[in-house]
Amino acid sequence: MPTHTLRPQGQYLNAGLSRRMAAMFYDALLSLALLMVVTFSYLMVLRMIYGDAQLKLMSETGALNGDPLLSTLLLFSLFGFFAKFWTHTGQTLGMQVWGVRVQNADGSAIDLWQALLRFLLAIISLLCLGLGFFWILIDKQKRSWHDIYSGSCTVQLPMKN
Fold it and tell me: What is the mean pLDDT of residues 132-144?
């Protein structure tokens, strides 16, 4: 799948930790809302299949705890959210607010494979108590683990007037 050039073009500095964290906070709120909608929709489908009484019984007995189908749907939904934004505009909604963008070194959009690598490495980084994000403070190019392993960079765009 060919990538496209993102606008605006130019040589931009890599984004720092504070700006990235602020964008992550915004995106976390949006992600939480997405997960709530997907879970609600899933439970409505289960209600149509099993009925109210059976669904209540399943809930009370713990049969719905750790549902692998729901977990898979939630994971795919989150990936779809981030991949759509990263591969098309290079920016999630939170990144747009804080003026950061994910791109290749040549200014083109990342592809789906790079988006998958970024997504998975970001999860691993969070599970390691954020070490992959704090790596930005050590790396001379201000790259996180997911920047390094996906071959992408997160840049700070100039502020609009």
Answer: 96
